[in-house]
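Record type: ASSEMBLY
Status: queued
Input:
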Amino acid sequence: MSGLVAQPGAGAHTGIGRIFERFPFLPAFVILIALLVLNGLFEPNSLSFGALTGLVSTYLALMLLAVAQTYVVYAADIDLSVGAILSLVNVSIIVLMQLMGGSALSVLVACFAGIGIGLACGIFNGIIVAGLRLQPIVATFATSIIFTGIALYIMPVSGIPAPSVYWRTYGGRLFDVPFVIYLAVAVAVILYVIARTRLITQLLAVGDNQQSAYQSGLPVTMTRIRGYALCGVFAALAALCITGDTASGDPLVGGAMTLNSVAAVVLGGTALSGGVGSVAGSVIGALIIGLVNSLVFFVGTPSEWQNLVQGLAILVALTVGILVSRRAGQ
Amino acid sequence: MSAAEPGIGRTAALSAERLVRQPIIVALALIAALLVAGELLSPGFASGEQILRLLIVAALLGIVAAGQNLVILGGREGIDLSVGGVVSLSAIVAGNIMNGADAGIVPAILACVAIGGLFGLINGVGVTLLRIPPLVMTLGMLGVLQGLLVVVRQGIPSGNAAPALSGFVTQPFLLGLPGIIWLWIGIGAFMAFLLRRTVFGHRIYAIGSNEHAAAMAGVPVRLMRVSLFILSGMFAAIAGICLLGYSGQSFANVGEQYMLPSIIAVVFGGTPLSGGKGGYTGTMAGAVLLVILQSILTTINIDEAGRQIVFGATLLVLMLFYGRGRAMRG
Amino acid sequence: MAKLQVRGARKAYGATIALKRGDMVLESGEVHVLIGSNGSGKSTLCKIISGSVRPDAGEVIIDGRPVTVTGPQMARELGIGIFYQELSLAAHRTVAENISLARLPANAGVFVDHAAVGATAERYMAPFADVLGDGFAADTPVVKLRADQRQLVEIMKTLATEAPVLIFDEPTSALDSAQVERFFDVLRKLRGEGRSIIFISHRMDEIFAIGDRVTIMRDGETVTTMALSDADHDMVIRAMVGGQEALIATGNADDEGTRRTGKTILSVQNISGPGFSEISFSVAAGEIVGFGGLHGQGQSSVLRALFGASRRQAGTITLNGTPYTATAPRAAIRQGMAYISGDRGHDGVITDRPILENVTPVHFLRNRLTFAFPGRLRAAVLPALQALRTKYATLSHPISSLSGGNQQKIVIARWLTDPPQVLLLDDPTKGIDLATKTELFALIRELAEKGMAIILYSSEDSELLTNADRILVFSGGAIARELTGADRTRYNLYHAAYEAA
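Status: finished
Output:
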């Protein structure tokens, strides 16, 4: 797991600080374990293989979206359009698969096309934010409106189903192992590989101190654009997962997920100010959001109180996470 | 060393350029242009009645943006994402308290403003004492508020707006203008007085412009910042009450649509997200501009998708008008 | 043919001129020292050469070929590596990553080659192996290192560019003598290989130990270049100081110390804090006490601690005979302290705001005001602005429309609108023109004569010599020497400052 951390190596100093430095997502990991234990206490079945697989298959999209967000946050940027990109890719691939008859081949082609669309959206964001030097928050909000518009153009009303081969595969089994497990493993490998690329170190250096990075001779603008491009690709991957999970197209499906992706990133110990963090943390952050939701249910919270308790739990987790990692960083 | 403005010996040409660069003049010019364009596209667009309707909608957004404006002016990445939640909560609480009776208006206002102020206080304490980044703190708070909404709503629509409140928002009150327009004008005057004629106002600009220098000159920075979040919560609460009056009844998460637009209105009004300069008069123009822009797009004969795409693209183009970030090379 | 030549380089930020006319000729195989007081334009000149500052005029010539350095990336391609005074490190990256940051070795052009990164780090760490200090390893994040260790990382990062031209802008300010010695060994080796090195330092002994030639800058202009083998300390100091040959202070300052008649206002006993320890002194009404010494020897830290802007751990302070315990600027201001910093951008100017709003914050606090009526405020601030002879169009103009000197006058007026008891001046004239300086010091003397107690830290020794009644020379966070009466000579001051370092 440490390979997913974008901060290889430990210091020659000792103590808790060193551990945190190596695993910036440690507070989140502790919270995750605690939540798993609590879930198990209140609903023993929730720790069964099937239940955990279900959790992963439901939250894989949010995990990937949080990962996408992490790459831009590394460079102290933010992308409020990830949800819109997800929606756009979701409807695009559904329509593509439908046009091409829903065969296995069409599914594959559509998936690659979807990733290409995500990449294009990301590059567009990068050029707008880094190239034209606009404020990331407002600029990506504006692009999110554009992407949502395009999604609405492609599919004005939600509800077109995905070809059965698509969602049967996503929700099915291969050699008696749930397909999402293969996906999760594949994603872990991909994240591990990406964490070792030069781009990640460059993104983190830009986020650490943009002026320093520039003076050191790093291509700051190009690095930020690449960060947005990577973000777009992972938002597209998240869309592939959500399409498998919901089995239909919805031009507004991602809207509510954007802010959750930011919350997951912060929960995972990545600083919005850039320069430190890990994608592993963001994955854990997304799982925390999922487990909080299920725990609140298992505890037997009256249904109308569930959202409030979830919101409070996430706020507390966000606060504690920031306070703990700050203390450890000192 | 930061780049300074040109010296005293400015030429007339430069002054003219400055005039054009005044965001409020840009906004007013754009408003005028859009009204003309709207009238050409759809005769009757710029009729008095229609403009009045636009102004009511703009007032709702503008009142939310007043608080947002204060938080942003205070600098240090000040932003309040929780306003959307406060607007919704306030609309519902107000509806439940007044339940269609005029006698309930005053208690409703008191209760809602107190609630808004309380959430602002919590935001402010989190941001200053716990040093949680405003974006994270108010994002977490938004989650809590959304949960609270479900609790308060108990699955049923809120009580009705009192007749006097609905009349205040929608019916002519004085000189043919509804009360809400007068309220907005009053808030505009209050904000102008606050920002220009009070020590508090001067200190907002001071902390937003150079927090360190302000602290060195004896400005109570933390107290100031907490106050700004409290005011933001209160303004959002007032907007929520007015929204109830506008729609008669509150059911869904109606406040959400004000969250990001309130930020855009502030930016288009000439207050950069970095804070320290700008003011509320510009924000009022920004709110009107946004509402007219949206309205003009609904009158043109294009579908929802095209409308969104044009809207997002227009926002991006406008952002280019409002100043870009500094280049890295000195 | 010279390796690198700069001709007539000029840079202004608005009305502030950072570099008036920078010239220098750098040969191959030399260590070329650049010296001058703070604000004389050395760093700006270096940043123009390395491309991170765009010059308004002038040319850079490399190997006889005029070049336009469009940015740091271009500078690297042209073979220029630079050590930035303010460092250019990514705090959360490791030592090794920082050393290789600009050109991260990669496998297949994509994956960071950690082995190569580590090997590069080890190679550049090797010459410093015995002076790296505790906790310094290739995989330590820079944020965990001490100031001197960070400076070493920046040195290694600069060396790792392997550029033919290396610029070191104050690379030794935080290093101890053993670390400096290792660094100089490396520089000598590089010089032997024919590389060209620009070296900036304020330490006279270092300059003579490593330099071949020296270019002296004063007030944004290149004054002269000389061979260090033909020069001695005095010659260099004289060139830095300029034509002011008078070695004995002649100014407003009192020669016999007879002005020190007032009662003691501020008394400081054994205070310690970050950057200083065991400091004791007192200031009487009507007295101007000077803080001297090299830059960053604890002078500013003491002033900031007195103002409650930084923590102090030990000692006692009395103000007018009563204990003074302010732990925040607000409390200090209420008790009659004022702190004027020369770092306008950071401590003083409220950017983008009108002149009036830049004067009034302290007035608000001292008078516990609620409303800000421009008419009354104008009346309140005018006396101070007039006393300072500030030039401005109207009080509603943004402060950024003024020149640096006038901006500083506005900030000073902020503190004089309601006269304080104690005036702390922290290098108050940094980057201000000569005429304004003269006016300012006349006013400061006037304030002293009205009974104010004044502490003046200045990085320009001539200011101290002409204005301070006594000078406390700081070194390493302690008071190394006190100069009074006829001892206040330029020579004594330079000697105490440079030799103690």
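Annotation: Residues 221-247 of chain B form the longest helix (27 residues).
Annotation: Chain B touches chain C at residues 1-8, 196-203, 205-206, 209-210, 212-220, 276-277, 329-330 (CB under 8 Å).
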